[in-house]
Amino acid sequence: MNRLCVYCGSNTGSRPEYAQGAKHLAKVLVDKNIGLVYGGASIGVMGVIADTVLEQGGEVIGVIPEVIVDKEVAHAGLSDLRIVGSMHERKTLMAELSDGFVALPGGLGTIEELFEIVTWAQLGIHRKPCGLLNICQYYDKLAEFINHAVSQRFVKEVTRSMLIVEDNPEKLIDRFESYRAPEVKKWIELENT
Questions:
Q1: How many CB atoms lie within 10 A of CB 178?
Q2: DSSP 3-state assignment of 10?
Q3: Strands 101-103 and 80-84
């Protein structure tokens, strides 16, 4: 794993543990020589993880659309800042640059990015690991909802297995490094039975 894409909030949230968790993940990435790909902002959890990776001597690539360069306060001190034309271009480039995807606590944008990348895995567009770093049980209700969707047969169990949930960054990255994606043909055949 060369680079990990991290989706996270442009706010720091209500608990200091969210920023602490971002710092912890940043240190794990640098220790394992894994670069960070993220949304390019200098604020919120996004800024915390980028600053920590940089302080530890790691690589940080930010990808930010022109329309929100000023709004999200583009980070000026990154290893590489790429300004793109749209949110769609942002997500595509982040996916191309990354070997896996993690969502830290964040808002609707973070959740939307996570669901889109898991959907891409479901469709076989990529075979990279996707996960939630569940700091302070932030994603418990989301994981519960996904399990409910499985029980109601809107989401296949094999698709659910594509989303790794851990509350510890070391465990999450260890699981990412040993991840083997399910065969897409196999679960598509199951879908049609």
A1: 8
A2: coil
A3: unpaired
Domains observed in the chain: 3-191 (3.40.50.450)
Q: Which two tokens stand for residue 81?
A: 């800042």
CB atoms within 10 A of CB 192: 6
- Helix/strand/coil for 174: helix
Residue 192 pLDDT exceeds 60: no
Residue that the structure tokens 């980028």 belong to:
50
Q: Which residues contact 107 (CB under 8 A, 6 or more apart)?
A: 9, 10, 11
Tell me the mean pLDDT in the region 51-80: 92
Predicted confidence (pLDDT) at residue 188 exceeds the cutoff of 60:
no
Residue 31's nearest CA partner among 132, 174, 175, 146 is 174
Given a contact cutoff of 8 angstroms between Cβ atoms, the answer to whether 138 and 102 are in contact is no
* pLDDT above 60 for 187: no
Strand partners, 82: 63
Phi, psi of 46 (to 5 degrees): -60, -50
